[in-house]
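Researcher: Next entry in the queue.
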Amino acid sequence: MVRYPVKALLPFTLALAVLAARGADRLLVEGVLPRFRRRAAGVLLALGGVLAALAVAGRLAPGRVGRLLLSGWDPAWSSDPRIVLAPVVQRLPGQAALAGAGLIILALLLLRGTGDPRGGFILLGATALSLLAGAPRTIPRVPSSLYETPSPLVARAAALSGRVFERASKDFDAVRRGLAGRIEGDDLVDLVSAQVRQGWALSGAPHGLAYAWDPDPDGSYTILTRYAYDVLRQRSWERRVKWLRAAAVRSVIASDVPPDTPGLAPVFVEASVGVPVTLWRLTDPLPGVRRLSRVVPAGSVSETVAAFERDDFDPKTDVVVYGKAAAALASPDRDPTAAARVLEDGPDRVVLETSGARPAVLHVDRSFTPRVAASVNGRTVTPLAADLHLIGVPVPAGPARVVVDLAP
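Model: Structure for this entry, 408 residues:
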């Protein structure tokens, strides 16, 4: 609802549709407009007859139906039209027959009236049959074996540990661009096969992949994470590596990485299905939890991006913080004694231990939200956004025990 406000219109649209249906029912069925009801029934019967004739023609002369569809084919599209249109020609007679039967049933209901309970049952039965007829294609059966064990690429990515940045190509527009990679068609089962073998959008999570910047499902990211992802999309792969290191990413799954990109080394290529993708490892990854004493304050998202991308900014020792108290944390010094380690790492709470000679910001590779709460040596502190979208906790000089509650 928050991300897509238009979803809030759905219940109101349904309510309006119900009211409109009730109004039409009273006007057309309860006898207020009997002449219009008869005419509407005649039109529906005629349309139903046309669809029934089309269904018969599709069975007896599929070649003519195919030629008719070919007349609307755009020659700029890459695929062989015979391959793309073959399933359409095959399914068209059945779909036309179902649609024609539905229109004829509606026509009979208009003539008879739904005041008779039998009319309502007929309409309900026709709707149920229509849904059941399309269910095998709408909800295809996917072999469970696809999910039982990780694919070779997913297993290699899980072995690298750390977060993974997944941007495999999902361009399976077989009509306009031709068949992509080794996929046999645009059927949903083929897409699922490519998804699980290439570790798309959370499909590798059951096998140990921790995704970074993943946009699915709704709610797994924040608006600042979206900003960071938008920045990444506008950068070359060479410039992306700096952002990936700062976010503790250790591997990349993608199909468009140049082979000579500094900071990335190829590990495995998955080309058995879909557009071939490569698993890359970062050659110089950073830990997700770091104590950073060189602190650069920023007053906006644009300032954060500009400061982070300066040549003298090193995410290994430096951090950009954004928030009301950011200016008070500014420090130009790097602390060679800084250290941090994780004591407890859970879905809702992270417990850390850190030490250093100077005050610093403890960088935690979790998405920052206003709900995040933190305490240092038992005292509540206010977390800030670190490196645009992650968590930064101010810590004093010396040893400290830090608790970060992600969902207090």
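Model: The chain has a mean pLDDT of 85.
Researcher: Noted, moving on.
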